[in-house]
Amino acid sequence: MAETYPINIWINEERFEKLKAANLADMAVDRLGGMKVIQVQCTEKQKDKILKLFPMAKFDTATTKSIELLPREVKDKIFDITLKLKSIGPEVMDEFLKSLD
Amino acid sequence: MTDFIGHGEKEIKERILNPGEAKNKIKNLVSVEISGRIARECIDLGYGFFTPLEGFMKKADVDSVCKKMSLADGTIWPIPIVFDISSQEVSEKGIRVGDVILLTRMGNPLAVLEVEEIFTYDKDEMAQAVLGTIDAKHPGVRMIGRMQDTFIGGKVTLVNEPQFNPPFDRFFYTPRQLREEFKKRGWVRIVAHQTRNVPHTGHEWLMKGAWFCAHGEAPVIGDKDEIKLGTGVLVNCIIGPKRTGDYIDEAIVLAHQALHEGRYFRDDVHMVSITCWDMRYAGPKEAIFHAILRTNLGCTHHMFGRDHAGVGDYYGTYDAHRIFDQLPPGSLNIKPVRVLEWWYCPLCGEVTYSGLCGHTKERQKFSGTLIRSIIKDGVKPTRIIMRPEVFDVVMECAERYGFGSPFCTEEYLAKRGPVFVVPPLD
Ligand SMILES: [Zn+2]
Predict the structure, then answer these.
(1) Which of B71, B154, B276, B356 would bridge with B114, disulfide CB 3.0–4.6 Å?
(2) Is a pLDDT exceeding 90 seen at residue B225?
(3) CA-CA distance, B247 to B238, in Å (whole number)?
(4) Active site residue B160
(5) Bigger pLDDT: B72 or A1?
(6) Is B197 assigned a catalytic role?
(7) How many domains does chain A fold into?
(8) Which domain holds residue A90?
(9) Beta bridge partners of residue B274, listed in sequence order
C-alpha cells in the first residue's frame, strides 16, 4: 500500500462524546500523555493538495510525518466527515476536498 | 564592584547618558534611523548585556570572531555584532571616521554611535564562518544577507532609555538589576533556561533537571522546613523578530510566569525575565553566545537541551553540547548543563529522562509540533503534558493579544503592540 500521511485530530470531551455516540470510540488512540487523537489518512496527492489550499499548514517531515497546523474549523469539518463515513481512510479527505470545490 | 564582573572578567558598565547630558550631546548630530535589530542591540550594548563589548565591532574583531571565534584580544566571542548601513547613506550624510552620529528609532533618539571605523566585509564569508552555511533557507543566512553593504564600528551610548510596555515591563531587568535581584534573593547558583516557547512539562523538567545539577553541590544551610536553597532557575525569554506560526511573545512570557504562579516552582527558586536578541539560529556557536549573555546576567549555569538554537538539519542534535569541550579551559565563567531529552513514558507513568527510562519502544516523545497541533485544535492537554494554568494563560493571551490566535498571524505581526518604545527626548 502506498504511504499515507495523517492529519491529527485531537479529541476533547466533546469530540469523544460524538465518537462514542457513533460507536467509533476505538478510533481514538493514545498519543501523548493520555491525549487521544484520531489520525485521518491522506494520500500523497491529497497531502499536496491540502498544503496548497491551506498555506498555513505544515508537513512535519522531521518527527511525525503528519500534516499540522490546519485551522480548527477545517479539522471540525474533517471530524464531521469521519463521523458520517465512520472512517479515517483517504475517502474522508476525498469528500472533504470535494466539499471545497 | 565584584558583584558586577561579566564575560571576559570585565566589569558590567552601563553606557547611558542622563537626560540633561543627552540633550546637549545630540544637538546638531547627523542622525540615522535604525532597524529593529540594531535598536535591540544598542539597548543590549548600553546596559552591558554584551560585556565586554562597548559598541559595534570593528573589522579586526569581526574578522577574529569569524576566523577564531574570539575577539581580537582573545576573549571568546562567536557571533559578530555589527552596525550595517548603506554606502549611499554614508556618503549622502557625509559620515566620516571621528564623527558621532545619532541613532533614532521611529524618529526618536535612542543612542549615539562614535564612528571609529567604516569598513566592508564579505557577507557570505561571515555567514559561512558563523553559521557554517550560505544556504538562503537558513534564517541566519537571510539575516546577514539583508544587511547593508557597509559597516560602522565604534562605541554606543544610550541617550534615551527604552520603555517596555505591559505585559513585558515587569520582566525586563538589566544585567545589573538582575544581579541585584539575585543578591536580594540570596541566590548563589543560577541556572539559565533559554526559551522562545510556551512551556510543556518536558520544558518544565528540563528546568527542574538543570536545577538539580546546579544545586547538587550546594551546602545545606538551615534545617527542616527552614532550609535556604540559594539556587534558582532564571527563565530568560528571547524577544526578537517573529515569524508567522511562532508563539506570540505575550503567551511565552506569561505562560512561564503561570508555572510560577501555579506553584510548580516555588517563589524562591524561579524567576522569569526577558532579553532582546535577534536569534541567528547559529546552533553551537549561538549556544556559546547564550552562555556569554547569561554570564553577564549573573548566571552560574546554563541549560542546553537538544538542538539548542538550531534550525533545519544544519547542526547535529548535540553539536551545541560538544562545542563547549573545544573551548580553552577558563574561557567561560559559566557551566554548561548539558541535558538529553525528557519524554513521557506510559510504563513509568511519568515524564522521565531519556538517560534513565529504558522503555524506548513505549516512550512518547514531546514534539513542539504536536503540542502546537493540540493547542491549535483548542483541546486542553492532560496535566502531565501541559499544566492547565499554562494552557489557560495561552488561550487568554490569544484573545487578549493574539487576535484570537496564540500563534503569530499576519494580523498580529501587523497590529501587535510594540514590546518597547523609544519615547521622545523632551
Ligand atoms: Zn519508562
Answers:
(1) B154
(2) no
(3) 12
(4) no
(5) B72
(6) yes
(7) 1
(8) 5-100
(9) B172, B237
Are the Cβ atoms of B365 and A68 closer than 8 angstroms?
Answer: no
pLDDT in tens, B150-161: 999 999 999 999
Q: What is the pLDDT of residue B228?
A: 86
Q: By CB neighbour count within 10 A (0-12 exposed, 13-18 middle, 19+ buried), where does B227 fall?
A: exposed
CATH 3.40.50.620 in chain B is located at 169-421
User: In the CATH scheme, what is the homologous superfamily, with its name and number, of domain B2-161?
Assistant: Sulfate adenylyltransferase (3.10.400.10)
Q: If you count residue pairs, one on A and one on B, with CB atoms under 8 Å apart, how many are there?
A: 70
Can you tell me the distance from the alpha carbon of A95 to that of B180, in angstroms, rounded to the nearest whole number?
62
- Give the contacts of B163 (CB within 8 A, at least 6 positions apart): B169, B420, B421, B422, B423
Please tell me the predicted confidence (pLDDT) of residue B146.
Answer: 97
pLDDT (tens digit per residue) in B32-86: 999 999 999 999 999 999 999 999 999 999 999 999 999 999 999 999 999 999 9
CB-nearest to B376 from A11, A63, A69 is A69
Matching residue, cell 539548542 = B308
Residue range(s) occupied by CATH 3.10.400.10 in chain B: 2-161
Q: Verify whether the Cβ–Cβ distance B366 to A34 is below 8 Å.
A: no
Look at residue B2 in the predicted model and tell me its pLDDT: 64
Is the reported ipTM for this assembly greater than 0.95?
no
Q: With 0.80 as the threshold, say if the pTM is over it.
A: yes
- CATH H-level, domain B169-421: superfamily: HUPs (3.40.50.620)
